[in-house]
Request: fold
Amino acid sequence: MTLVPLVPIGSPLSPAAEDHRPALATLEDRLRARRGEVEAGWGPKYVERVHAKGKLTARERVARLIDAGTAPREVGTFVNYGEVFPGDQRSPGAGVVTALGVVAGRWCMIIANDNTVASGAWWPRTPEKIQRAQQIALKLRLPTIYLVDCSGLFLPEQSKSFPGATGAGHIFKMNSLLSASGVPQLAGVFGDCIAGGGYMPIISDRVYMTEQAYMVIAGAALIKGAKSQKITSLDIGGPEVHVHQSGCADVRVPDDETLLACLRREVTRLPSSGADYYRAGLGAMAPQHKADELGALLPVDHREVYDAHQVIARLVDQSLFWEILPDVGTEMICGVGRIGGLYAGLVINRSGLVEDPDRPGHQRPAGILYKAGIAKISAFSRACNDDGIPLIWLHDISGFDIGREAEAQGLLAYGSNLIYTNSTNQVPMFSVLLRKASGAGYYAMAGMPYDPVVQLSTCLSRLSVMEGRTLAIATYNTKLDDDFQIAVSDPAERAKIEAGMKEVEARIEADMDPFVAARQMDTDEIVEVAALRGWLADLVEMSYQAIGYRRVKNPRIWSMHDIAELTRGARR
Reply:
């Protein structure tokens, strides 16, 4: 029972698999180009304006804050991507950088107003993006660092960011919840800090201000209009006021570089990461089958199939994996492996065909949830939660089985069981949309509505209720015959229906673009396929960093062993 029976999986790819790379490379070139657009903010002219004031840009601050030789894991890069606001204005990244980064050896959540985009103003979805970053920090108990340089709401669009359950004010509730949960919060104020921007740092445990910084409920211009007083914002709420009089800030420093050094020093005073403790002396080891081969393994055409075991083999250390219940619900694969030296649970659905247990000698499509597969991953999800093992869901799912037999088998109840399990789990869960994420299958596999800590998409991701053609048929069902052909004889009406079906199909296909999901915050980040292992290794490490806020059982007492033994006995 003490042994976690990890065994080798996977095999070398055939040379023909390389044929998949060019199509994926084209999509990922577009991803990198668009990422570059966002990182440029409003362009060189605005970067020069920031530098002329003796300040750093938001991304320069993040780069200096994190440890040398490391790179930030940015989330929400493409929020608002492609949206145009009044005055033909755009808000790259919603005007805020939210990134996971290693500071003094500890993973932290960093939230930095982009001072090259409307002086760090809050646009529509900026508050939601900040809150999403705070939620990630709360779930993983990551120290949270605010790099504040915010001119307040982008007023022409204030109705879309001020009111509502996730309006700007909810940021301050998240500040409070982080504080109540004992999550360290540090704030550096570098410049403008007006209205909501003024409130954001205050609940932090330590607040630093540069000599150029000020925090005010209302800026000088508003006070001049309301009270006819001529006074500068620095006079109203600069470091002289808030460090030495109000006590709203703790320390004043001369410049950006000094402030960032002070924040790093504060992080060194926090407990170090528990990840090495949970590695138990084992370091990270690369997969036997290289992670960058995922780019050749996954076909761009979602109708083409691949071996799901080969995906796992390129994610887990040394390509070693313990599959749980391999002979039950074979459309689903679940089990445990090490990623970056730390245990994680993985769930993935097969593609292609699998044996139909109800009809010996027959096959049925994988990529669909059937009764036994649902029961299997429900039990596995509960076991991971009980054992404290972070859980990764790898989607390429078409949905649930449908039809009379499926209803008679009670798939609604089995699905509800899985949804209940994933809704109440306390263990960190991460969702990865490899390719398709369709219908209730997306929900059942802990998609975004079920609060995964982070959801990643690839350039191949297609997120929707159903495929465009299927949805067009459903929309025009009353006009079609049993073979889904248009059952109308009038040529004009027939042409109208054909055009309508094509329009619906094209619109749905466009909506499935991962950039649409990222723009709307329906996914957290789009990443290159070859980068998936690196992302997952970092996310799993974050799951083990904080000690004492959740149960993490040692492998000798995993309930996973009981499941494996009981089913092994049943097969004897």
